Amino acid sequence: MPLPFATNMRLKLPILAIGLELAMIILFGIFVEYDKDQDIGHQPNRTRHDNRFLALYPLFQDVHVMIFVGFGFLMTFLKKYGFSSVGFNLLIAALGLQWGTLMQGLWHSEGRKFHIDILTLINADFSTASVLISFGAVLGKTSPVQMLVMAIMEITVFASNEHLVAEKLQAQDTGASMIIHAFGAYFGLAVAIVLYRPNLEREPENKASVYHSDLFAMIGTIFLWMFWPSFNSAIAEEGESQYRAIVNTYLALAACVLAAYALSSLVDQRGKLDMVHIQNATLAGGVAVGTCADINIHPFGAMLIGSIAGIVSVLGFKFLTPIFASKLRIQDTCGVHNLHGLPGIIGGLASIVAVAMGATDRTTVAMQAAALGSSLGTAIAGGLLTGLILKIPIWGQPPDQNCYDDVVYWEVPGVEEYHDHTLKHDDHTLEHNDQDEE
Amino acid sequence: MPLPFATNMRLKLPILAIGLELAMIILFGIFVEYDKDQDIGHQPNRTRHDNRFLALYPLFQDVHVMIFVGFGFLMTFLKKYGFSSVGFNLLIAALGLQWGTLMQGLWHSEGRKFHIDILTLINADFSTASVLISFGAVLGKTSPVQMLVMAIMEITVFASNEHLVAEKLQAQDTGASMIIHAFGAYFGLAVAIVLYRPNLEREPENKASVYHSDLFAMIGTIFLWMFWPSFNSAIAEEGESQYRAIVNTYLALAACVLAAYALSSLVDQRGKLDMVHIQNATLAGGVAVGTCADINIHPFGAMLIGSIAGIVSVLGFKFLTPIFASKLRIQDTCGVHNLHGLPGIIGGLASIVAVAMGATDRTTVAMQAAALGSSLGTAIAGGLLTGLILKIPIWGQPPDQNCYDDVVYWEVPGVEEYHDHTLKHDDHTLEHNDQDEE
Amino acid sequence: MPLPFATNMRLKLPILAIGLELAMIILFGIFVEYDKDQDIGHQPNRTRHDNRFLALYPLFQDVHVMIFVGFGFLMTFLKKYGFSSVGFNLLIAALGLQWGTLMQGLWHSEGRKFHIDILTLINADFSTASVLISFGAVLGKTSPVQMLVMAIMEITVFASNEHLVAEKLQAQDTGASMIIHAFGAYFGLAVAIVLYRPNLEREPENKASVYHSDLFAMIGTIFLWMFWPSFNSAIAEEGESQYRAIVNTYLALAACVLAAYALSSLVDQRGKLDMVHIQNATLAGGVAVGTCADINIHPFGAMLIGSIAGIVSVLGFKFLTPIFASKLRIQDTCGVHNLHGLPGIIGGLASIVAVAMGATDRTTVAMQAAALGSSLGTAIAGGLLTGLILKIPIWGQPPDQNCYDDVVYWEVPGVEEYHDHTLKHDDHTLEHNDQDEE
User: Which of B385, B376, B298, B365 has its CA nearest to residue B342?
Assistant: First the structure.
């Protein structure tokens, strides 16, 4: 009764999810084949370790953990939105990796049938990552139906930009600072600006963490932090390039942690650390070192990039996010601008500096700049368009007073029982306190 | 004082655990040797990557994570049974993998000394998985002593059935839909029917989740979901078979998620998602695709199997489980019938269809059907027998009023202090509320 | 106002963290180079799997998970110190692995430039592990500034002892029972004795767990337990040695679990299990089997060592820890003496027995005994010296009444709001209850 629209979810979500899955099955039936490459096959004089796909499989699984545990739990910091954070993350990603496989495969095969292998699975996870970053910008204010629509839209634009940057421009972006992180962040911010809600400007009580929700979020942070070297190296060229991508990312992240802790304490008047900074800014080094990860930037260069990213990220949370919300009408729930947007741009700029200094001859300053421009441009254009589509009032967007609250979409233990036993109570506060105490 | 039997645990658990461990040490001393295969050995012109065991090791560790984190945390959804869920899961599995190593090794060596290698460790984890599935059916109503007895019984039957299916029938069950999942589920259900307690029919207050216990359970779900491709491919033949097992499982799981979300919303009158469905039914695709995982069923075939499993699993939770409890006297705490039982049967049937359609010539329709029948038959017979043994009133089974409550077996923070300070209070409700609020 | 010193953190932590990171960047610039070994390089007739570093990478990532998730979450058992446990663990480790890389590299290169590769990253994680063990001994009673100082001090001593044991004495300690576990434990205990605080003898209310904090700690336990075979085998010689290290550790841990559960129940008057034992003593087998892990001690030998370690560890928690606190003025917060100290010594002694019995000829009884003596001696001496430095009252050590409480260093949700709304309340108990209930 207080949630009239919720009833409609009963038809919207099932119809859309089943419809999309049917479409995926049909499209996979038409376009997708197993890899038959003899390299994978069973050959008489090769032993098990000789099949190349098992060599990439551990890197794939690390990336997989980042997508599902990393992104999923990182967003559980909200006190009443944990089910949606980790649950919708799974839903969006499950759709995203199917659609990403198709989009990237079709671009590559120019519309013909194509094969999938472990590298395909990694790339599908990557395309999904961009959607999950954008999800962070609108977390708590959008319905799962909207997010499924966004996943389809965003991955379509993502695959086009990725094709342009990697194939046409031949730019370098091994760790994807530009094409995933900056792209995902600005796409999400563009969606957020279209979906702006003035009533949420005075931050609702639910848009906060509790003690244990912050610990759940740290599960996400730590898994992202640990496996980021795999993310940045998974599609690097084998040998020295891949090795450098791992080492540079490892060092950038270590340096970033010290910078993030230092700044978090420094910007607080009592010198106290802020969980928001620790959960997010400690990861900025992994984002920022991405584009240059496999280039010879020297170990200390990676550490410098990581330190700068950590500092910029904390400053962004402290000073930019409030301005974005109040002046630019951008309500960035998870602060993806500070974790993915700014560090992604730093990554692109760092690659321009590195190329200008002669660290690699596989690309040029102009191509790197074009790649950054293309990623930002397509992200913002695609995000604004997607935002307009999501604004059509048919996707079950939650009303202002139900934002950041699982109870809109989930059976929440404690809450419903309460309803059943005392139907006369409509008081939401009471109901929620009930939930909190458990 | 309210727990007279608990005192007895002080002797029962230590004597049984130490006795079993001593027996294991003696049996390992008699039967188990290191692998001396020259393939593993240090050979002059081979480099580190050339030893075959390291190639399987990452797959083994993924399976290991599923057993200990996956199963362990999946069962922490109960509000007051988290210590037991993750703790007894560890205890049962630690015994199970030792006993599983022995049982499978002795069948294979026909009673002589045998070697262990990484493949042995994977198979030991597999035999343990069947026990942990059965544990889910009786969770909250059995003592750790009973579970140790069940582990010994079940793995003995499991190894016999596995030997029959794989060696005698030469049936295919790479991902073990039949020999692990269906077997474990029906074994557990058979135990549950023997241990039926009429007083638990009106669901006790403790048999429910709270907000954060559902999030802990999602840790289990996500790790199971991510690493399921490793589970289904770990013992597949190297090369194309193993590659297909990974890709098919990955796609079946992705499709399953969309189907499970759609159905969960559809079967609720207000369209709300149910955490029980999301925690469990999203995994049904991994179970159901298991038997066919390494066969050429086409990518879209894997997605179809996954979707069907997701749908059937949610319908099982919604409509079958209540009937099981009320009419069949089967109280299936975790709903293992919906996650492992039905999808396991779907897996067996799918393999029959695939073989009939000519997808593989390594097995026949008759052998697959015999494998399914054998797995179900031995599971039910073994489970009934085990249930009768567990019903003997010497294993410290908790009384009805203490089911689903850690306080029977664990020092629970808050609860005991309360006791000490206010010995006059025998009121259990108060004591438990205390625990909840922390 | 009740935390006058906290304000000072605003300068101390940023200055120290930024200063140390700058020093690291400069030192890495001077000394550290990428590995240029042609083995890693891209060679025409080699395929991806042929580069040796990818073979070690999965083992490295397992160790990485142990350091950041394992140690980090294991210490979240305290009800109000979860942010600090997992957060400072990350901070200390991020510094430790940079400093460890330098210290170990410089010893090895004798002060010249040196290369880093995946093995270097593993060793850096190892040196960090020793600091995190010591952190457990002083958890809740020290500031992050003190811990950064300790990390620098301890790793310096650690690297010297490791160089002495491995290079000079040529002793065997593959799984590092002596040089990491015993070293880290006794270093931490020596620091704890110097930092002894009589007012904490009557255990403060905050030095306890709540229900969900114990579950968070189990995340740490389980990840440590699962990946310990990787820890003990990561630097073992390839082939049979590495294989044995994995199998022995796996079996020792399985046996240890049964022993730990048995003893935990046995030492409680009502036979109830204690979460402290389960979280810690189940891991003692991994520590104790470390030194002998790659030696031919037979599978049953590994299980014996594991069982003994589990028993000793529980007995240590039950009987030694209280005596340490009351008689020896050693307040060992996490009981690292029982998890790392005693089992580490058992590991060293087991290696002496194994060598005496002729299990290996790569070392001698005398060298193993010298290695154990050196590890204990340098740990205690280094710990006492470090304790004296940390006692200088400039590092922001928390006052007695704020020990084991995140609120000293962190913005804790709920607590600050409370302050803002009701500035007249200075009552800490109220404030904390507030935090608990969320």
Answer: B376
pLDDT tens digit string along C341-356? 999 999 999 999 999 9
Which of A60, A273, A282, A437 is most worth mutating to test chain C (most C CB atoms within 10 A of its CB)?
Answer: A273
**Residue B239 is nearest to which of A29, A51, A94, comparing CB atoms?**
A51
pLDDT at A239 over 90: no
Surface-to-core class of residue A381, CB atoms within 10 Å of its CB (0-12 exposed, 13-18 middle, 19+ buried): middle
Per the DSSP assignment, residues forming a β-bridge with A50 are none
pLDDT of residue A426: 38
Portion 63-102 of A in contact with B at CB < 8 A: 64-65, 68-69, 72-73, 76, 82-83, 86-87, 90-91, 94-95, 97-98
Rounded-to-integer distance, Cα A307 and Cα A310, Å: 5
Q: Check whether B429 has a pLDDT greater than 50.
A: no
pLDDT digits (tens, 9 = 90+) for B205-257: 899 999 999 999 999 999 999 999 999 999 998 888 999 999 999 999 999 99
3-state secondary structure of A195: coil
Residues 6 or more apart whose CB falls under 8 angstroms from that of A260 comprise: A277, A278, A281, A282, A284, A310, A311, A313, A314
B48/chain C closest Cα distance in angstroms:
6
By the CB < 8 Å criterion, does B10 face chain C? yes
* DSSP structural state of residue B48: G
Measured from the Cβ of residue A203, the count of other Cβ atoms closer than 10 Å reads: 11
**Whole-angstrom distance, CA of residue B221 vs CA of residue B200:** 27
Residue C232 to chain A, least CA–CA distance (Å): 20
A222 touches chain C (CB under 8 A): yes
C-alpha radius of gyration, chain B, whole number: 22
Would you call C219 an interface residue with chain A, using a CB distance cutoff of 8 Å?
yes
Model confidence pLDDT, tens digit, residues C35-72 = 875 544 444 444 434 456 677 899 999 999 999 999 99
- Mean pLDDT is highest, among A36-40, B270-274, C91-95, for C91-95
pTM equals 0.93
Q: Which residues 135-174 of A have a C-beta within 8 angstroms of C?
A: none
B21's tokens:
């461990």
Cβ(A102)–Cβ(A24) below 8 Å: yes
Task: Indicate whether B42 pLDDT > 50.
Answer: no
C240 touches chain B (CB under 8 A): yes
User: What's the pLDDT tens digit per position in C307-337?
Assistant: 999 999 999 999 999 999 888 999 999 999 9
* CB contact A52 to B (< 8 Å): no
Residues of chain B positioned with their CB less than 8 A from the CB of C39: 47
Distance from CA of B331 to the nearest CA of C (A): 26
Give the one of A223, A237, A303 whose C-beta lies nearest to C28's C-beta.
Answer: A303
Interchain pair A29, B219: CB under 8 A: no
Res. B82: pLDDT tops 90: yes
Q: Which residues of C touch B413 (CB under 8 A)?
A: 79, 208-211, 214, 275
H-helix or E-strand spanning residue B149: helix B144-163
On the CB side of A202, CA atoms within 13 Å amount to: 2
Q: Which of A20-29, A336-345, B375-384, C3-12 has the lowest mean pLDDT?
A: C3-12
At residue B329, what are phi and psi to the nearest 5 degrees? 55, 35
ipTM score assigned to the predicted complex? 0.92
Q: Which among B192, B205, B91 has a CA at the least distance from the CA of B137? A: B192
Buried b (16+ CB within 10 A) or exposed e, A169-178: bebbbbbbbb
Task: Tell me how far apart the alpha carbons of residues A151 and A164 are, in angstroms, rounded to a whole number.
Answer: 20
Per-residue pLDDT at B203: 79
Confidence category of residue A25, pLDDT binned at 50, 70, 90: very high
